[in-house]
Every structure is written in structure tokens, then in C-alpha cells.
Amino acid sequence: MRVTEGSMAYDLLSNVNRSKERILQLQAQLATMKRVLKPSDDPQAAQVIMRLNGMLERNTQFQKNVAEGNAAMETSNSGLERFSDIVQESRQVMTSAINNPDPAALATYADRIDQLLSDAVDTANTQFNGRYVFGGLQTTDPPFILAADRSAVTVNPNGISGTIQYPVGEGVSSVVNIDGQEAFNGTQPFDLLIQVRDALRTGVVPTQAQLDGASAVLNHVNDKASKAGSLLQTLGANEDQLDEQRAQIETLLSAQQDVDLSDLVMKLKREENSLDAALNVAARILPTSLLDFLK
User: Fold this and answer.
1) What are phi and psi of 210, to 5 degrees?
2) Cβ atoms within 10 A of the Cβ of 21, count?
3) Taking phi first (over 0 means left), then psi (-120 to 50 degrees means alpha), and beta for anything else, what does residue 165 get?
4) 129-165 pLDDT per residue, tens
5) C-alpha span between 126 and 266 (Å, rounded)
6) Fewer CB in a 10 Å sphere around the end CB: N or C, the chain?
7) pLDDT per residue over 155-194, tens digit each?
8) What pairs with residue 258 in β-bridges?
9) pLDDT tens digits, residue range 235-258?
10) How far apart are CA 194 and CA 213, in angstroms?
């Protein structure tokens, strides 16, 4: 079969164009260090990469949830520890009043208990990122309200109970709060402080039952602080697991999409040599004007 100059030129042109396309693709891979730049490069690998990227995005969100939950629980834990200190000091003031029932001293003790009442309410209304950590599911309003005349503490009428959980893994959630009802048994600690303060103002020293009540509150709050510490440990374990999962996903993703640099450089050099050879052949058989176009 006779091969015409036209068909030879067409074949050369096709070979040169294909070579240029391969070089452009290899250069793009070299620039991005990614083997799969579009689904048609490797359809099967592209599907795996898409799935792994989705897993990576979810892992990132889970890690954000853990970080926020951890910060919220740290705030709750600090609040419970502070509340424990307040109750401990209140008990010490009560003991001092029993040991020193002088009327002037009792008035001073009453004022101190009243200040500790304010501190206790403020602590029970601790916030994190504008949310009340002991508010249960009602995080936008203060869970505890001290009356204007300081005669009583009431709770948010919408409630102070409810468990908040954050997704921290595929099908896994962690608790990130201790509500006010659980933390303080409602208004029990505040009621006790108000009773003791009012009694001191009338010259009556605290009773043994009130001392025991303060001890019970202290033990309860310390127990909830321990629970907060346990929840923080769980979140820490969630974080470690997510870090491990992320490393595994990134390893799998790298295996699917990252280039072998030495192999890529060899392929690029080989393709450039092929293009040079094609252009050399073209230089011998094609018109100069067409050759300039190919280059």
C-alpha cells in the first residue's frame, strides 16, 4: 500500500500532539505531586480517593467536636472545683461561727456567707463561648437566678436538665456536659447558704445538721468534679483514636494519589525524548512552515 506524504504528515502530527498531551499531563502531576488529577486518569482510584477524602472531612469535623467538647468540659470541671472551694470555705465560716458566737463576729460571718452565696451563683452560671455549661439543654439563659432581695435562688423555668452529646466518630457520641440539676442537686447548696446567713443575722449559730448538709454538698460536688474528669479522659481517648484514624486515612490516600517522583521524572524525560525524536523526523520530511507550527 502506497503511503502518501499527506498520511505521513498526519501520523507525525498525531504522534507529536499525543506526546505533547502526555508531557503536559506529566508536568501537571509533577507540579501537584498527584497522580490522579481527574477521574478519567484512573476511574477506580478516583472513586477510592473521593471516598477517602469524605472520610477525612468527617474526621476533621469529629476532631473539631472533640476540641469544643473538651474545652466545654474543662470549663465545667473548673467551675465544679471552684464551687467546691466555695462550699469548703462556707463550712469553715460556719465552724468559726459556732466556735465564736460573739454577735459582732456573727454579723461578719453572715456577710461572708452572703458573699459566698453570690460567688456560688456566679460559678453555677459559668459560661463557655456564651453558653451556660450547667444549663442542661437550655444553654442561652442563666440556670440559676438570685432574687433581687437575695432571699432565694430559683432555677431557669425552662429547666436545667439534659445531656448534650457531640458526634466524635462514625456512630460514636460523647457526653460534653453535666447539667445543673445533677451538679448541684438543684438549689440545695444555695438554700443552705441562705438559711445559714439569715440565722447568723439573727444571732443564731449554724446547727450540726447544717454543717452536715455542707459536707454532703461538698462530697456531691467533688463527686461530680470527678465525673467531669472522667468525661475529659473519654474525650482524650476519642482524640487519640481520631488522630490514629486520620493517619491511616492519609496513608491510604497517599498510596492512591501521590506520585512516585523518581518514576515520574523518568517518564517525563522519556516522553520528552520521544517528542524530540518525532520532531527530528518531521524536520526531514515536512515543510518548514508546518514544522514551525508543530514546535
Assistant:
1) -70, -40
2) 11
3) beta
4) 999 999 999 999 999 999 999 999 999 999 999 999 9
5) 63
6) N
7) 999 999 999 999 999 999 999 999 999 999 999 999 999 9
8) 34
9) 999 999 999 999 999 989 888 776
10) 13
